[in-house]
Design brief:
With 162 residues, the chain is an alpha/beta fold. The protein has five helices and four strands; from the N terminus they run αβαβαβαβα.
Length: 162
């Protein structure tokens, strides 16, 4: 058997695998079920660790407080200390949301992580200790979810029997 035939055979096998994977993905996407709205939305604590200034930080922080969730939400912005450059943005966004009658939000200063623990994990654990909601969501600071994101996550979580 020549090398050309061998390479052709490998190429055909790879092409068949790509087609099979594409068809499998298409079936999975079509099988997505509609998740029902809930009768009651549990209270939710959203923990957002922040380190430094992300691109679009002010808009991300504002979007975190304009969540659209139909139940009670408390948002915890967890930063290392008063020197964090995002702190003034967070405080301004919390004040603006409070003036509009938005849901509770606060800043937690967790300090530097202990040896052997990352800063993000340290911030997440500090937020978790303060969380008061029935459910807890961790959201990265560099994201700007839309107003249905939290509802969709909770609906999906609570409607799945497994």
């Amino acid at each position: 058997m020549s090398i050309d035939l061998l390479l052709l055979g490998i190429g055909l096998i790879l092409l068949a695998e790509v087609v099979r994977s594409h068809l499998q993905l298409g079936r999975a996407i079509r099988a997505t079920r509609q998740v029902p709205r809930l009768q009651r939305y549990p209270s939710l604590t959203v923990i957002r660790p922040i380190k430094g200034l992300d691109v679009g930080a002010a808009q991300n922080i504002a979007a975190a407080l304009d969540h659209g969730y139909p139940g009670e939400v408390e948002t915890l912005f967890v930063l290392d200390d008063e020197r964090e450059p995002a702190l003034p943005l967070v405080r301004a966004a919390i004040a603006a949301a409070s003036e509009r009658g938005g849901s509770p939000a606060r800043v937690l200063l967790c300090g530097n992580p202990p040896s052997g623990r990352t800063g993000k994990l340290h911030a997440m654990l500090a937020g978790l200790r303060q969380a008061q909601g029935e459910l807890v969501a961790f959201v990265d600071s560099d994201t700007r979810p839309d107003r249905r994101a939290l509802s969709s996550v909770v609906e999906t979580l609570l409607s799945d029997p497994s």
